[in-house]
């Protein structure tokens, strides 16, 4: 798998040589952004064993922070150097993740889903009704990616490489964190919480730490998303985007971080090109059928299918 990831990164690194700006911005960059967002959910599902509907909220908090502390057309906020805005966005998304974990730490299964969904919807309605900080329905627009030493990070090729670097960094964070002592404790809570408590490790701080880390990853996606869309509003944190992230995670596969990106590119390709085959209004039907087929035929997602094909090819070669 590690060799495959390295090969994939090499291929992705040379894609701007062949791809047009449309593919770089609307397909590849968008896929990576959604992949990082789904990665924050995949981490919680794979290593803590919970499903959180609050990941778009955490990404939205980072996005609103960038908008508030950047130049925007709403005339709300205070413009800061982009580095400080990014650091604040990551800080707030991480703290928000910890708060979600603090609220949901005693819940598992459907109860965890409902609590995080309630948090997500509460934030959605709060952003829609608050005008002094979130500018209500309208939200913020005119938010551009910064320039660094004369290099426009919003340019298609440059922004793609920023997204690619962020996606690779987020994946590396997840892999390394999951094998750290704290990461192993999180997996221990997933498998046998009582045994973890029995050996003297309190489970609540471990769970809160997992949610906080997922908030950091979601915040990275939220920053890229607001630069990509050049706007953020209550619609960015509504139920639709929340469900989309869950669909992406399930389609790609929740057992490995790579599944988040496989699910994201699949989702974006369907979203972009399904209109050429069917009515735009039928997109939800198409993505719903794809999700249904994946759940029935391959519960581990597309990544599970690829692993199965690899094993079969390996057996054929050895025989």
Would you mind describing this structure in some detail?
By secondary structure, the protein is mostly helical. The protein has helices at 2-18, 21-48, 55-68, 82-104, 109-129, 156-178, 181-198, 203-229, 239-252, 258-273, 283-297, 301-318; strands spanning 140-141, 147-148, 151-152, 231-232. The chain has one domain (2-318): ABC transporter involved in vitamin B12 uptake, BtuC (Orthogonal Bundle). It has a two-stranded antiparallel sheet. Strands 2-3 form a two-stranded antiparallel sheet. α4 (82-104) packs across α8 (203-229). It is globular and about 65 Å long.
Helices and strands, with pairings:
Elements: H1 2-18, H2 21-48, H3 55-68, H4 82-104, H5 109-129, E1 140-141, E2 147-148, E3 151-152, H6 156-178, H7 181-198, H8 203-229, E4 231-232, H9 239-252, H10 258-273, H11 283-297, H12 301-318
Antiparallel strand pairs: 1-4, 2-3
Helix pairs in contact: 1-6, 2-6, 2-8, 2-9, 2-10, 3-4, 3-8, 4-8, 6-8, 7-8, 9-10, 9-12
The CATH class designation is: Mainly Alpha
Global morphology: globular
Based on the coordinates given, report the CATH architecture: Orthogonal Bundle
In the CATH hierarchy, the third-tier topology is known as ABC transporter involved in vitamin B12 uptake, BtuC
Could you tell me the number of beta strands?
4
Write down the domain tally. Answer: 1
What's the order of the H and E elements? HHHHHEEEHHHEHHHH
**Which band does the percent of strand residues land in?**
under 5%
Side by side, the strands of the main sheet go 1-4
